Amino acid sequence: MSYLSAVILGLVQGIAEFLPISSSGHLSIFQQFFQLADVEHDHMLFDVLLHLGTLVAVFVAYRKDIAQLLGEFFAMVHLRRLPAGQKPDLSARRMILMLVIATLPLFLVLPIKDRVAVLYTNTIFIAFALMLTGVLLFISDRLPKGSKTARNATLVDALLVGLAQAVATVPGLSRSGTTISAGMARGFERSFALKFSFLLSIPAVLGANILSIADAVQTGVDPSLLPVYLVGVLVAMVSGYGAIWLLRYLSRKGRFGGFAYYCWGAGLVTLILSLIS
Integer distance in angstroms from the first to the last C-alpha of the chain? Predict the structure, then answer.
């Protein structure tokens, strides 16, 4: 793997992980049609590190929310005492419960994860998945504005968003786009749908990489490639943070639908390239 490949893959991972355009789909497209390194098989450690790099971007962007949730969680399990006179933050505790409930559907994917992984090289499937992502974004952008937050969203809402995340493990279907759309369909306030989607990515990415890291180590690590990997990870972190900032800005403006046209175009181009190659 060259430094240029690492930079390109880091950019694709960082930008597409958070913008609702599918990072797995774009990584597959770049690898299939532009002969970039196959991180899924040849550089598994780099693949794990890229995902962890974008996870750092989430921690930085939502550091205050994460610190609040962690503090309240430790208080819930009696590992931290609340200061005298301070009452539990019921909204934060409800958010924690919602994130736990929304994470559970991912366990349904574990028995079929190998079958899902096979789709990574099927660019025709990815093309249609990208176009479906566009449909979801187009519809969600035209839904009435919701008002639900952690204070009044239900556990059923959280479970349905979690089911959407489980479905979005297939390549080409954007995880962020699917979960944000599902949240908005359930009446989430737009910025809350965005925050819930990003916070929900933390256990999802951690869990997936814990399962993958053992396989990555077993395949062996070339020490000479570590500086190349580091460059790619840093690019993924910076570009990921920039993508989060952009999406938060767009959520305030109420403009997610523009990504629908991109997904339709990218899906159509991918389909044509798949048929003629």
Answer: 24
Round to whole Å and give the CA distance between 35 and 87: 57
Task: Give dist(CA 67, CA 75) in Å, integer.
Answer: 12
Tell me how far apart the alpha carbons of residues 121 and 28 are, in angstroms, rounded to a whole number.
6
Q: Which two tokens stand for residue 142?
A: 């035209």
pLDDT tens digits, 114-153: 888 889 889 999 999 999 999 999 998 888 889 999 999 9
| Rg for the chain, CA atoms, rounded | 19
Tokens 């931290």 correspond to 80
Amino acid (1-letter code) at residue 50 = L
pLDDT tens for each residue of 103-119 = 999 999 989 988 888 89
Closest CA to 56 of 266, 219, 267, 233: 233
Amino acid letter at 257? G
